[in-house]
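Example A, followed by Example B.
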Amino acid sequence: MSKYLVQPRRGHLNEIFHLFAYLKSHDRSRLVLESSRPRIDETRFIKQDWTDFYCDAQEPIPSNAPEPRGKPVTLSCFVDANHAGDKVTRRSHTGIILFCNRAPIMWYSKRQNTVETSTFGSEFVAARIAVELIESLRYKLRMFGVPIDGPTNVYCDNDSVVNNSTKPESTLKKKHNAIANHRFREAVAAGTIRIAWEPTDTNIAYMLTKCLAGPALAEMCARVLW
């Protein structure tokens, strides 16, 4: 609703009342900060040789980072996009949730800056934003002296994004989509991330991009709230 701060209307005020009514009826919800490490199915991730395409790709690790101490943490990221979800501008919406072990520590829900003509384009823009958030988080954790176990596991429910990110021979013609594609693929080649397909019903980021019915929203919220 923040995009209507300049010229709010009565309907926007009713929506604000609706939001506060929801918060009032769910005032006992708490974030689940679970420190245990998740179980990862390694068979879901496809490993490829990216040497011919990104021969010098490597994750930038700060040279002045302190010595890692303690147990290593596993980072996971759920990403989704609502294609043309804004009925006024037809811009898509990005939803991202980042987990440190089983604890949700960062989330992102925002309208994209460009109008995408396809679901594939909006999903790749969301994936590019996710890479930027992941790299920022990994840098911060290393500067805190927190050891990170392997690449960040990215889960996406779009088959085309997963295929283009796991097959080195795939190409894109549209320039801005190709830029997002290479940004994501280079992070895969550098070992910063790895991607796997996630069903829409279990993609937690789905609730940050769509208006869900009560039971579906409650089911997804149960994975991060109690």
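Example B, a separate protein, is given below in the same form.
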Amino acid sequence: AERCNETVYFNHILQSFWLGQSERCYHYSKKVLEFQFLGSHNRLMILFYAALNAFRGLNNKNGSGSKFTKAKTLFEEAMSALRPSLELSPLNFSNKACLLEAEMLSSERKHQEANFSYAAAITSACSAGYVHEHGLACELAGHHYKKIGEENTAFDFFQQSKRSYMRWGSQMKVASITRKIEDIQRK
């Protein structure tokens, strides 16, 4: 029964992450990570999305508070799980590690380092042919640049993200990014 629940919850985690439902993603991630017999690959992927989801939930501009602590803890756990896979298969996992690193650096206000990590994540996802993760890396880079006041750069990354999501076939993500682009154009 636990194996069946793992599969169902794993799908709920992915669905809620991509739909931007942070609380739901957190809820299911927390439940699944408590499973005794969680597969190692599923654990790694859940930690990756749970950590990204935690960074998404950071609202505190100075990077302090319980939300930052949760994000940092999930980041450390995800990076610890990623390292062995990254060594065995850098093509499959380097974009994920770079993206998590970029989100941590951005939340710590280390903007120059974050810029390099976003660029590495984008390049790596593109090289691996992961269209959806390329779109995600561009989207998160766009949020980062918008947050630091570089609207033109944010606009360019959102455009790249939109193209990737179009190639991936996600009309919902295309619509979401289009709204972000329009918000920048209105300013």
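On Example B: DSSP finds nine helices and no strands in the chain.
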